[in-house]
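Hey, I'm writing a tutorial for new members on how sequence and structure tokens pair up, and I'd like a real worked example in the thread rather than a made-up one. If someone can provide the structure for the chain below, I'll link this post from the tutorial.
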Amino acid sequence: MGRWEPNARGRLAQAAIRLYAEQGFERTTVAQIARQAGLTERTFFRHFADKREVLFYGTDLARELLARAVAEAPASAGPMDAVAAALHAAAAVFQENPERVRLRDAVVSANAELRERELIKLAAFASAIAGALRERGVPEPAAGLAAETGVAVLKTAFTRWIGEPDGPDLDHILRECLRDLSGMLADRLADQGSPG
């Protein structure tokens, strides 16, 4: 197949996710993915470095989205408000295709190597958010602390959303998690301020 194939990357990704879910990541070959998508292995390798990349090729775009959302938060927004803006931007992307996101999560969760790669991805998200906060003038350690806290909130909300397919949308869960975090911190500050 030497001719141009429309949406080859999307077709390959869809075929890969489906095969990973059906027969497992380890047992799925690039040849099977290409065949399922009606393409060649050569076309696969033009779009992805290896079969893991199918699950992680959007990482750079997600990092850019998070950093841009922090940068575009109102100038009056504090660090956690800017981080919250980034989390809501990410949630909107996940909500575009929740079935695919849930299927991808099941594949990643079933494989130790992929789970490790997922943690690396989350660390990259925190780094991008912290960098964007520093660009806004937030000093360290506050920028790093806000970024890491934001990623922890995203991870917690995402896990709940995945586990409740018929529950509230991810953005709603994120708002609840941010409210819970704010309440816990307020309680902690109140405890520190009370005479003991």
